[in-house]
Amino acid sequence: MNTFFSFLKSRNWMLWALILGVATGLIFGERVAFLQPIGNGFVKLMQITIFPYIVVSLIVGLGKFSPEQVKSILLKAATVMISLWCIGLAAIWCFALTLPQHDAGTFFSPALISPTASINFAEHYIPANPFASLAQGNVPAIVIFCIALGSSLIANKRKTTVLDFLEVIGQGLTVISKKIIAIFPIGIFAMTASTAGTLSGEQLNNLQVYWVLVLCLGLYLMLVLMPMIVAAFTPIKYRDLILVMRNAWITAFSTGNVFIVLPVITEGIKEHLRKTNQADEQADHIAEVLVPIAYTFPSLGKLTTLMFVMFAAWLTGSPVGISDIPNVTLSAMLSYFANVHIAIPFLLDSLKIPADSYQLYLSMSVLSAKVVSPTTVIYIFSFVFLSIFYCRKQLHLKRLRSVYYLALLSVCLPIFMFASYTLNSHLAGNSKAADDIIANMVIAETVPAHVLNHVPKAYHSGELSLTNIDIIQKRNLIRVGYLVDNVPFSYFNQKNELVGFDISLAHRLADDLQVEVEFIPFKKHQLSEYLNKGYFDIAMSGLEINVVDLTKVRFSDHVLKLQLALLAKDHQLQRFAHKSDITNLSSVQFAHVEYGPILNKVTKQYPNIHFSELNNLKQYFTDPNNFDALVISAEAGFAWSMFYPEFGVIVPQEGSIKYPVGFAIAKRNLDLLSYINSWLDIQKANGKVHDAYNYWILGLGGQKEDTRWSLIDTYTRQPTQ
């Protein structure tokens, strides 16, 4: 027993907390979700010393150097950093080639119509107000300010008093950090247990190809490339490097946060050099200066998120080609100087990938941070160690160990790439195609319904043209007109059931009236005739509310506001990126099914733009080469792109047009119109319209959610008889 306890004491408590947290989450599942606030509290506790530590370490570290030392150290550090960037980017592009074939397509997201954030490098890197930068947590600006102040003290003969004072503060901050680290295994356990217990299978399945891709890349960078480069070029052994990085690595993995472990990295480097009798004052100063600088500049950890841009391009059917690599690499290196959440939308926009793909990154960011953060930690360790030994002129390859590690990392690259390709090919083959998802969507709550493919002769007499709520309830039937193949508002799913946004609301309306529902098809140009002759009581099918039809029928209050867009072949989308691109074309031919009043005004203003009206949307896909693009709502366009992955959707910049959609009722039936408007107010207030929008337009919940598995549920669940 004593031997067992001695073994426990000799182990790393953070590692034990990590293992115990994962086990607890798997055993108890969502029952341990209450631990999440505890974990968040420990993260905030770790952040107490970070900003003061960066300020003090940079100013003191730079201030103690002579001008000659600074010039030499920073130049050599820059050489190491650029070398690591080049090697890491080469590995990243190799892994980008492991993406398998994919049937592209995705649901609409409001992010599509949001303006792309431009990167303001001046705001992020020029500390116009250093105190504001500190208050806002703008790390790049803080680092620039500290570098400037520290550099200005180098030649100052009276700097000793200030530097001694700041060094004492730094020592105090280090003591605080060590005290917090001593109890941080509690936070590691809480965060790991809550994450492992609440992470749903849907989150894992949603972006499983990206997760496998970034996991294989991260493992190669963390366990092979960077530590083996350090072991090959420096006196540090591979095993020793892994051990010295262990605490910071586990903390970054558990929290998904590199910022809070910067003091741990600095102290770990200094402590390791002391243990191996390689420490000196210059090495300590280099560590104190380069750790925050390495965090501020693009790291290989940050650059692993470039894989998401490759994944998004692959997912939307426009994979990045070899010819795009130089431009993408340059854009990435410039944009990653800013925040990742600014860089990724910028790169998506530069590659003409729909901006809503960024929502996918956000949904996966909790998981991807488990790779990005520990990879960044190992990058910082590797960068600083290589810089220290480069400054000492101790980098060399004249050893058998150097050849061994360089050969090993070269051999491991194709192995990891093959594993990534094999796993992702399997996952892509088993995953549901985009068109399968939308084709299998169903209406959750239905009433008895009759779906017709024509107008019954009994309705031709016109006797039913005057109707109201009393008549509808008396006959126990409400008749609803629908447009055929008007995805996602009214269409037939794979089971040949009539479904869609408006169809689901029609079932809810019939349920509230306690009547059955009958669906009758019509074409857009037949709307006013069929309504006023009484062929159906109400038309519900994503109908545009326009001024021309207002003189013929009555419209309800708007149900949604849709964004007008263009749908075209993927390779043609770039032609319509801006309004000016379209207006400058000599002649352009667009197809449309509705929007006549809006498009007539466009034709008068721009004679080079011509529009042709089609009977239905499917007619466009039968022979799309007759037109340059299809005018359609962005919401519907994305749904159609799931059935036809070779097509994409674009909203021309500076040419954004929105329009309302609603239900149509015959001019005479004012009682029914009044009821519908009040009913709509109720549905909006209780969230039913919002729920329908999330499901049919955004695709949220389009795939069945599995119950969160846990070990305790497996053994306590009652067996079925």
Short structural description:
The protein is of the alpha/beta class and 721 residues long.
Give an overview of the whole structure.
This protein is 59% helix and 9% strand. With 721 residues, it is α/β, with parallel strands linked by helices. It is elongated. The model is unreliable at 3-10 (pLDDT under 50).
**How many strands in all?**
13
What is the helix content? 55-70%
Give the uncertain stretches in residue-range form.
3-10
Radius of gyration: 31 Å
Q: Number of helical segments?
A: 32
- Helix/strand structural class: alpha/beta
Please identify the oligomeric state: single chain
Tag the structure with descriptive keywords.
two-stranded antiparallel ribbon; 13 strands; elongated
List the helices and strands and how they pair.
Blueprint lengths: L1 H9 L2 H16 L7 H11 L3 H14 L3 H30 L24 H5 L4 H7 L2 H15 L5 H40 L2 H6 L1 H26 L4 H18 L6 H14 L5 H16 L3 H4 L2 H10 L9 H11 L4 H11 L6 H35 L8 H31 L3 H6 L9 E3 L17 H7 L1 E7 L7 E2 L5 E2 L1 H13 L2 E7 L4 H6 L5 E7 L2 H4 L3 E2 L4 E10 L9 H5 L4 E5 L3 H10 L3 E5 L3 H6 L6 E5 H10 L3 E4 L7 E8 L4 H16 L2 H9 L14 H6 L5
Parallel strand pairs: 1-5, 2-5, 2-6, 9-10, 9-11
Antiparallel strand pairs: 3-4, 6-13, 7-13, 8-11, 8-12, 8-13
